[in-house]
Amino acid sequence: MIGKKKIKKIIDCALETTKADQTEVAVFCNQQALSRFANNYIHQNVSETDSIIAVRVAIGKKVGSASTNSLEPEKVRECVRWAEQIARHQRENDDFTAFPEVKQSAYKKVDTYVEKTAKFSNIERAAAVREIVDVAQKHKLTSYGSVSNGSAEICICNSHGTFAYAMNDDIYCNIVMAGKDSSGYAQAGRRSIDDVNFKKLAQKAAQKALRSQNPQTLPAGRYTTIFEPLAAKEFFEYLSYYAFNGRLFEEGRSFLSGKLGTKVFDSRITIIDDPFVKRGFAFPFDFEGVPKKRLVLVDNGVAKNVVYDSLTAGKSGKKNTGHALSAPNPFGPVPTHVVVKGGDQDLNSIIGQTKRGVLVTRFHYTNVIDPHKLTFTGMTRDGTFLIEDGEITSGIRNMRFTENIAECFNRLGSISKTTTLVASEPGYGGRFALGTITPIFVVKDFNFTSTTQF
Questions:
Q1: Largest alpha-carbon pair distance within the chain?
Q2: What is the structure's pLDDT at 337?
Q3: pTM exceeds cut of 0.85
Q4: What are the structural domains of the chain?
């Protein structure tokens, strides 16, 4: 972490160098560390500190971008010159209008940084893994997974006076507990380390592994299916990318194209993009420095809004909603703070009302088959169970499915009252925590197309 003052000097260096009509400078400084474990012991402990300076310039309507991970002034100047050179060789982009101009007073103060999380040490991560391994060994299971934490500074500035700066951090843990013929999974990601209980997380994964031992083979077919939060969030992630995306919407490639203001889902479905929910990964601005705002996407089943960045808003004559991803971004704007309204039941009552059905912990290797129709496919993983007469009676071998998300949301059964933050796995690259807050929900006649041997 280099501090706001030093970042300002880097940005000033870039803006003093540029000869373009408009210039945007984005600075991402992050540090992160990870302890990975397998076979009940830590086998990898790594840490990384890096900085990226990304420059985007406009010469007329020609836009070019370049980046460097050097903080040296001459390298920053060189990056600006590369961006300008690239812009000169581009075709004019008729959709481009301008980089956003934002006043400082427009930004809302949001708590995004917990120092205790950022300073969670390798010794403390090892102690967390020890708690997890102790649970595995107690139940004669084998544990796999990781504990990681990181922090970042993000600053977006442009030649119109926009200057957005924030620090953020997060802790993330994922656990697989494996038995001879079964497995269980649990994960958690939060801003504060105090909100993660590693032992309870391990116990949750272990109980799923123990309960799914000696799995049965369930024939392919349509079943009443209960989706726990890890599986449920994937429905909403695909909606975010392929339905609420303003670019796809304006091009007629979104499921919602031509449907705003109409009822598209069950009336119990309300989806909000809310960047200020405290138990989520709140953040005050997008990657163009535009302030984020709470936006209702679906209200009681009725499609209300899609999201825009400056390019899609300028092209369509709509208002920028503050949903730009890191530039260059050919895909379009995406909501990244999705919150789904809960229902009125708990998991036990939902299971108790199910005569015969399937309980799914999470999905594996999901892919979209038809983005416009929202058809997707994938497999269950790490805890799939058969429910008979209101009780979980056995684990079942994993199953492949092919389904349509929109149709599923019109075949809903119960929805849980409790909603859970499901964090996206940090992966590689810069550290920026994302997550979806979702309830458990039931889909009637969910289509499982085949079975597996595990």
A1: 72
A2: 98
A3: yes
A4: 4-211 (3.30.2290.10), 221-451 (no CATH)
